[in-house]
Amino acid sequence: MQLTISISEIIPREKTAKLLAGIKELFSKEGVSCEIEKKIAQRDPWDDLNIEDISVDAGVEDFAENHDHYLYGTAKRS
């Protein structure tokens, strides 16, 4: 059996170490051998996305209101 636990990076390392020690102790008391493997998850690039870096000024004042007109050629709303 394999048990996977994902722990947030927000939790301090000291608390994480304490938590893992408690889990190992719990298994030990039950007579179950366990191996704890720590893996550091890679950050998701979408978490660091800055809209200001990728936005483009199209020079169109009413784009939000009339985006269908500019994208698909429908009649303007205003």
Could you walk me through the main structural features you see in this protein, from its secondary elements to its overall organization?
By secondary structure, this protein is mostly helical. It has one domain (13-72). It is 35% helix and 0% strand. The protein has three helices and no strands. The radius of gyration is 26 Å and the shape is rod-shaped. The model has no long low-confidence stretch (mean pLDDT 86).
Strand content: under 5%
Bulk shape: rod-shaped
Radius of gyration over all CA atoms, rounded: 26 Å
The termini sit apart by: 63 Å
For the record, the count of structural domains works out to: 1
The DSSP helix count reads 3
Overall pLDDT metric: 86
The percent range for helix content is 25-40%
What are the segments in which pLDDT stays under 50 over at least 5 consecutive residues? none
Q: Report on the biggest sheet.
A: none
**Strand elements, count:** 0
H/E element order: HHH
Report the structural category: mainly alpha
Quick tags:
78 residues; mainly alpha; 35% helix; rod-shaped
Give a concise summary.
It contains three helices and no strands. By secondary structure, the protein is mainly α. It has one domain (about 15-70).
